[in-house]
Write a structure and sequence with these properties.
Residues 13-334 form the Luciferase-like domain. This is Dimethyl sulfone monooxygenase SfnG. By secondary structure, the chain is an alpha/beta fold. The chain has a single domain (12-363), classed as Luciferase-like domain (TIM Barrel, Alpha-Beta Barrel). It has 12 helices and 12 strands. The strands form 3 sheets. It has an 8-stranded parallel beta barrel with strand order 1-2-3-4-7-8-9-12, surrounded by 7 helices. Strand 7 (192-195), helix 6 (200-209) and strand 8 form a beta-alpha-beta unit. The longest helix has 21 residues, at 343-363. The protein is globular, with a radius of gyration of 20 Å.
Length: 378
């Protein structure tokens, strides 16, 4: 079963917050991107002026595969929300390293401070050392997703119920009333809950409990398959889910220039770091009972961008990139989560050269709507 057809909202855009050192590619190529707060504050303001509605703060607790330094995701997300006016910032978190009630309280406060712009990405986790070196147990694949599903169920229960009750295998609630609740409205009963993962377990979990499903980079055909799988599960539970797709964008004035940049990124890959990352994550992907986990078929070149962003095909001239973005929208994507080599400059290039073409192409689609998109430059 696929998503319902009919008029679609304009494609939304998010960017990866570079709150982790090393940029968005594991390469020794020059990256004019900085992981510090001042750079990120300026970037957030640039992004909301150039058509980005969301930003995703990464979560890392220790050095790994080229990322030597990391700022914590929830506090960094709140700081970026307070530095902007419209940007919704999604904080990635790991169940197992957070007590969900504590996170629910933090996000409720952040939601009030930001005027309703807090969101969360619940990540089941792939980096075993982050758990074991902190003295926390490491669960196998299926158990991590069962815990993540309970974690999301807990968040929703505590945010929406005055007498929250939950009796799960991992978490429990006993007649608990969180005050204040997060801000709510007709289209947003609580902060939006995002979730990633490519495995069957991840897709089924998204269909049951998540608001958004983030997919690793893929072709439009691959995305369409995932959209169909998740939407089918969601429909069986009387729900709908929206879909985000990871992509690394290399838009340049000529296709040759864009291809040369991509080739240099890969040619100058930090081979030791990429191979170490690949060894860790492909084992995580294959640990799913049916071998369908994330990265289970990723090549060395794919892993240079650590969420398979090259696979999404957003490389070329502004026209070529816009056409590929539309292909992903037709496949069911509601949002593209973008990474860049030089964030500040390329976010501006996207807003000036790529986004207007995407909006023109959307307007020409059958049954197109003219819904304005907040934050875009007129």
């Amino acid at each position: 079963m696929s998503k319902e057809t009919g008029p679609r909202e304009p494609l939304k855009f998010a960017y990866w917050v570079p709150n982790v050192s090393g940029g968005l590619v594991v390469s020794k190529i020059e990256q004019r991107t900085d992981w510090g707060y001042e750079y990120n504050k300026r970037l957030a303001r640039t992004a909301e002026r150039n058509g980005f509605e969301y930003a995703l703060s990464q979560v890392r607790y220790m050095a790994s595969y080229g990322a030597a330094y990391q700022h914590e995701s929830t506090s960094f997300s709140l700081a970026l929300m307070l530095a902007t006016e419209r940007l919704k910032v999604i904080a990635a978190v790991h169940p197992g390293l957070w007590q969900p009630g504590v996170l629910a309280k933090f996000l409720a406060t952040a939601d009030h401070l930001s005027g309703g712009r807090a969101a969360v990405n619940v990540v089941s986790g792939w980096f075993k050392d982050e758990f074991t070196r902190l003295g926390e147990p490491w669960l196998e694949h299926g158990e991590r997703y069962r815990r993540a599903e309970e974690f999301i169920t807990y968040l929703k229960e505590i945010w929406t119920s005055e007498h929250a009750e939950l009796h799960g295998d991992f978490y429990r609630l006993h007649d608990f009333d969180l005050k204040p609740k997060p801000l709510s409205g007709p289209d947003r009963p609580h902060p939006e809950i995002f979730q990633g993962g490519n495995s069957t377990a991840a897709q089924e979990m998204a269909g049951r409990v998540s608001d958004w499903y983030f997919a690793n980079g893929n072709t439009p055909e691959g995305i369409a398959t995932q959209v169909g799988n998740v939407s089918g599960v969601a429909a069986g539970h009387g729900r709908t889910v929206r879909f985000g797709v990871n992509g690394f964008m290399v838009a340049r004035d000529s296709e040759a220039e864009a291809r040369d940049v991509l080739r240099e990124i890969i040619d100058r890959a930090d081979r030791e770091a990429v191979e170490g990352f690949g060894s860790a994550v492909t084992q995580a992907g294959k640990s799913a009972p049916d071998g369908t986990g994330m990265w289970q078929d990723s090549t060395f070149e794919d892993l240079v961008q650590y969420n398979d962003g090259f696979r999404t095909g957003l490389v070329g001239t502004p026209e070529q990139v816009a056409e590929q973005a539309i292909r992903h929208k037709r496949a069911g994507a509601d949002l593209l989560l973008l990474g860049f080599l030089h964030f500040q400059e390329e976010v501006e290039y996207f807003g000036e050269r790529v986004l207007p073409l995407i909006r023109e192409m959307e307007a020409a689609e059958p049954g197109a709507t003219s819904t304005p998109v907040a934050g875009e430059v007129a």
